[in-house]
Amino acid sequence: MSTQYRPTSPASRWTRWLSSTLLAFLCVGALPAMAATTWYVRADGGTPAQCTGRSDAAYPGSGSNQ
């Protein structure tokens, strides 16, 4: 079995480098957004259907799980 060496064109190498670099920037750019979420858990909150955990405030409504 013989293998032939086929050099890649400069345009192909450039495209691969550019796509890899853009992917790296996208991944690094998404890290702060993923790490910046603050969740609030309170004893006077509601059920998961009533509270999203995104604000530090008591559940203002009435009903169960007060």
Q: Helical region count?
A: 1
What is the β-strand count? 0
Order of helices and strands: H
Radius of gyration: 26 Å
Helix content: 25-40%
Shape: rod-shaped
Q: In whole angstroms, how far apart are the ends?
A: 75 Å
Low-confidence stretches: none
Biggest sheet statistics = none
Strand content: under 5%
Structural class: mainly alpha
Mean pLDDT: 77
Give an overview of the whole structure.
This protein is mainly alpha-helical and 66 residues long. Helix content is 39%, strand content 0%. It has 1 helix and no strands.
Search tags:
rod-shaped, 0% strand, mainly alpha, 66 residues, 1 helix, single chain
Concise summary:
This protein has 66 residues and is mostly helical. The protein has one helix at 10-35.
